[in-house]
Amino acid sequence: MTAVQTHVPDGPIWVARDSWTEALRHLRAIPRNPEQMIFVIVQPVMFVLLFVYVFGGEIEIPGYDSYRQYLLPGIFAQTVLFGSSFTGVGLADDLQKGIVDRLRSLPMHQSAVLVGRLLSDLVRNVATFGVMLLVAFVVGFRFEGSIVGAVGATILLFAFSHAFSWIQALIGLSVGSVEAANSAGFIWMFPLTFVSSAFVRTETMPGPLRWFADVNPFTALTDAVRALYNGREVGSDVVVALGWAVGLTAVFAFLAIRKFSSTTR
Amino acid sequence: MSDLVPAVVAEGLTKRFGGTEALRGVDLEVERATVLGVLGPNGAGKTTTVRILTTLLRPDAGRATIDGVDVVADPRRVRALIGLTGQYAAVDERLTGLENLEIVGRLFHLRPAEAKRRGGELLERFDLVSAADRVVKGYSGGMRRRLDIAMSLIGRPSVLFLDEPTTGLDPRSRLAMWDLIDELVREGTTTLLTTQYLDEADRLANEIAVIDHGRVIARGTSSELKQRIGGDRIEVTVADAADLGRVAELLQPHACAAEVVDAERRQVTVPVADAGGMVPVVVRLLDEAGVKVADVGVRRPTLDDVFLELTGHVAEEADEEVAP
Predict the structure, then answer these.
(1) Mutate to test the interface with B, among A5, A102, A111, A124 (most CBs of B within 10 A)
(2) Which of A14, A24, A28, A105 is best to mutate for the B interface (most B CBs within 10 A)?
(3) CB contact set of A216 (below 8 Å; sequence gap of 6+)
(4) Domain B8-91+139-226 sits in which CATH superfamily?
(5) What CA–CA distance (Å, rounded) separates B153 from B126?
(6) CATH number, span B231-300
(7) What is the ipTM, given to two decimal places?
(8) CB nearest B107 (choices: A3, A106, A264)
(9) I want to staple B278 with a disulfide (CB 3.0 to 4.6 A). Which of A247, B8, B90, B272 is the partner?
(10) How confident is the model at residue B303 (pLDDT cuts 50, 70, 90)?
């Protein structure tokens, strides 16, 4: 067998192409594992039904005629955030199965392994969000603000979930097994999303919890998207939430990429 | 120019993981269109060596080149030259066989159509055509291994690395894998193969490097090594352990390497050059001496024999080497 030319294409276009090839690898798998998608969607749908129809009658939020207008932006935020846990689990799986080793032995751009993974998770998250939006409309949720506001809120949601995907990537690269990545990636997201303004106002919580809820970046996110979807005054929440998204992305992308390049070096 | 240097050169590779010295100066060479079998027990440093040569790990000291390209200085060019099949089949279970091949082809920067064509070619050659559009999750162990090797051939590698390609396979798949590797070798693929099995190295490799505790302790062709460790073994089990010394003494002139006396099993192991011719001689000798024999058997030398002869210790089961 004769060797091919050792021409190794370089440059940003090739990073993008390799990342897309990697993303394609994951995206092709999604329709073959519909149970994965169903789980991701069933859980928030259950939350919607529970909170709107079971608890909703008892919950009154000052300033909101209907609880669902208050609640659903929080559920959206929780859904896309939970969706980010796929990043860590998927990376841990690839590591465990030796697929990362194979990829690293190919003349591709190494960072495409991470970028491709995050790209596919973003696409998956957008699809999940689309289904959630449908459910929301069915239970009577309406955009009460401008289209620009709604689009902005949606972009903010994905910027946030992308930032969390980098956190999950670092977890997935650090823990060494799929099971560990699953629990380590998921467990802390419950307090993070529940001890926030997503389901009730933070004013109703006891001291320490309220303090946590108020500084919780997830509160800033839900407040921002809630205000945007409902056409309310946004205040500083959008800037704070965006700041968190950008900051977390910068820090954790750096850490995850560094971890990735040291994993086998 | 690159025809002048061996396809793989490693000089003085060392690697330490925490307190463990995994490699203590490994020197290797693989000539073009030959197979080097790296033979050693678990934890000897085989996988660490392969990981360094395939750019997955950086050596602490020493240097290595593939086709004259330095693995540390220019890893991406090296990656375009090699194919790697690791210890575990690195296939994406969620995709079909063809999709797995296509993705790797595209990461080798083949055009999508070309990647597909080449994938189809390899599926045919590895007898996976009927499974081409099936999701890999349903593949058997042997099929996964074949797909795994096919994936490492997509880029028409100049050097193929096979890290314990038959570990964990049932005997039938193992034989099929041997035939497959044989065929690749006949086509002239330069291959570095690691194995724990002497018979595997014997069957597949032109040259064998025996590695132990992070060092190459012997090198040569299979027959050269066998001569050194002394061909086949005749094992004599005596009825009475008191006869062991006498038996060893009687057979000593016929041994081509050091005898081993195992008191617990009441057994004397005699390495001989020609086992077939020696068995009657041994039986007659023992009979004449009036030794009560429980059993006489012939066996092929094992990895343990190689190690016993070369190092004075058996190839103990060390823990699986850890690559962080």
Answers:
(1) A102
(2) A105
(3) A192, A195, A196
(4) P-loop containing nucleotide triphosphate hydrolases (3.40.50.300)
(5) 11
(6) 3.30.70.100
(7) 0.86
(8) A106
(9) B272
(10) low
